[in-house]
TrEMBL record:
Signal in keyword set: yes
Protein name: Outer membrane protein beta-barrel domain-containing protein
Keywords (A to Z) from UniProt: Signal
Organism encoding this protein: Flavobacterium arcticum
Signal peptide: 1-25
Domain of life: Bacteria
Length: 177
């Protein structure tokens, strides 16, 4: 348990360092703060598929889909709202699979070039399968690559009350609204 908490703290620390190292620079790739302040804010919408291993005692695989609404604050920072459905597959016959709907809000910051970013999200996961009647706190740091239409990322998603976590690879298609 102590190793798990150290691992989570290390991930958050690295993501925080990466996220803040280039955001506050005076000039970003030849773009002055004046042109960033005059940026035309906009919404983006993305549809993603998620897959990866579940880390814990009861589940071994997680598959899901999501919808992410993103509001660009500047050219390099955005607020996000993500929901969808994730299915955790049980590794034991005596434990049922778990399906849940995550609802997360987050902050996304591009840190390298215009394509690489870090993302941190927090929210809740609502169990929707018959045998589970729980809601859990979710926290999800991640890193990714995005261009105008494609978003490829990997994230760690911690779920306290479901007694499992996951590492998910996300492939998404996004567009401006």
């Amino acid at each position: 348990m102590k190793k798990n908490m150290i691992f989570k703290g290390l991930i958050l620390g690295v993501l925080f360092f990466l996220g803040t190292s280039n955001i506050f620079a005076q000039e970003i790739n030849g773009t002055s703060n004046e042109s960033i302040n005059n940026y035309d804010q906009k919404f983006r919408l993305g549809f993603g598929l998620n897959a990866g291993p579940a880390i814990g005692d009861y589940f071994n695989l997680a598959l899901g889909g999501d919808v992410r609404l993103q509001y660009d604050l500047t050219q390099r920072t955005s607020l996000t709202l993500t929901t969808g459905y994730t299915h955790l597959f049980s590794e034991e016959d005596y434990i049922d699979d778990l399906g849940y709907i995550p609802v997360k809000a987050g902050f996304k910051a591009f840190v390298l070039e215009d394509n690489f970013y870090v993302l941190g999200e927090v929210g809740a996961g609502f169990a929707v399968t018959n045998d589970y009647n729980e809601t859990t706190f979710i926290w999800a740091p991640g890193v990714g690559y995005a261009n105008e239409y494609i978003d490829l990322s990997v994230r760690y998603e911690g779920m306290n009350d479901f007694k499992t976590d996951q590492v998910a690879l996300r492939l998404a298609y996004g567009f401006k609204l």
